Amino acid sequence: MSNIQLQDLDWGILWQQANNKKSRRRKDSADWDKKAGSFAQRTTHSVYTEKFLELLSPKQDWSVLDVGCGPGTLALPVAARTRQVTAIDFSKNMLKILAKRAAEQGQNNISTHQLSWEDDWARHGIKPHDVAIASRSLAVSDLKKALTLLNSYATKRVCITDRVKYGPKDPDAFAAVGRELADGPDYIYTVNLLYQMGILPTVTYIRLEKTLEYTSFAEAFAGYSWMFRDLRQHEEDRLKKYILSIATITEDGTVSVHRGYVPTWAYISWNPADFAEI
Asked: Hey, how many other C-beta atoms are within 10 angstroms of the C-beta on 104?
């Protein structure tokens, strides 16, 4: 058996190989346009947002670039705490929801741009900001290119989150439905790739709540079915049975789902000016 040295590993290539083994294709802008409304409702209030903001600790004089902003899950609360936010997403419906919410809240320090990771941001007027964030939005075709891009658009800090193992998907739900869950590379590839790029990031973890609260079983089912593409009737029946097996339903119809697998996200941050001598 030949010896494998750390310097022989290319984490960019390893990430590509693992990414190609995913059990489902990457969602495009049309997919997210369709899911914008339900996604916005699901992420309006969450432990994740609270913990991300606590770790980010926004400063009033910051300008922030939010890449993959979605419906404003972070852009809106960050804008309330900073000088200016530039929000980028490739889904026009996500940006419409963000703009509507910003108007309702009287926030006028958010600019939105319908752009993807692959677009030329500079040609569309995007300039470096104090801080660049990419929250749960690293579904890219080239991770090294995306990390390099973020690094070039931040002067003080880059903050991203990446999946720990299965991320938001419940492996027990997949087993109950009868589908394989092979969801590609997680945060450890990202951390090792950053190290190989000469960046020493700080890593901490955002662990979500064990029990999820829903106003109805229909809402609970919708909260789980988003994990799957094109569920067949027998798969829907299996998923409903699984949810019922881990749920408590009160007399008024509210549902508490006590999940065995609790999603965890890695919060990874670094100063773009700090490069290690490796």
From this structure: 9
